[in-house]
Amino acid sequence: MKHTILLTASLFLTINIFAQNPITEIIPEESTAPPMVIDTVNTSDKFTKILIYDNHTWEYFDLGRPVIDTADFYEYWSTDIIHAYKGVPLSELPDEIDLRLVDSTNSFCPPITGRVRSGYKFRRTREHKGLDIPLNMGDTIRAAFDGVVRVAEFSRNTGGYGNLVVIRHPNGLETYYGHLSKYIVDTSEIVKAGEIIGYGGNTGRSTGPHLHFETRYMGQPFDPERLIDFETGTLRDTIVTLQKHYFSIYSHYGQTDEESKAASDRIVHTIRSGDTLGSLAVKYGTTVSNICKLNGIKSTKLLRIGQRLIVR
Question: What's the predicted TM-score (pTM) here?
Fold first, then answer.
């Protein structure tokens, strides 16, 4: 006796929920009580399970396969190159992008919840193009949205990300999950929001166990906190409008659009031999005190070759 039930409610109904709310469609004539789920069996398709009932019947249970529109999905696709959109310059993006995050066929789950320790910003001498959330070794990391795994790579090939997973989503968005102790998905594998893709770790350029999480639209990084409140594990909205100036490392969640625009227009100078705060002030038509204020430094600070300073 076999029946098929399609999952039309939450994508994450568990078998326990089914057990607590038993199906009434399969009732043997000799029984007065509905059957109870006593076991589940995996199939060759991870989105389909077999439910075993206490009345010796079974049925397929469809978990719901994510719908991937393949029209433009695989453009600039690469499983070997971490940043596959390198050929798409920022100038080619529109001034505003309406990014639909969830709808009737696409869901969301926080990759992990917790307080952000280090945000999207210029950090010391390098751009920190994502955010860090502390965790315990082995904590589960989940896919934030439905999508396809584009990169699943070990530390030796990721340039500091450690063990890394990159997932491409149907709306032009990609999410990065770095410093994993282990990943359990393969390239080109379809994943659902909430599916476990790996476990938290301390691999790569890392000073302690944490998840490094990035959001990029057509390869351009922006502050993930514009999309997700990581402390509560909730989306800020189902549709987010990205402004082009959000793709600056100096633009972050919490700024007004005016503040973000001003921050994105900043001029940054890389220190060379012979540079002083005084010479930079003259060169860029500003003052030493203003340079110090922009960078949070004192006028007596020694400048290092290769250091980057906001000069205006």
Answer: 0.80
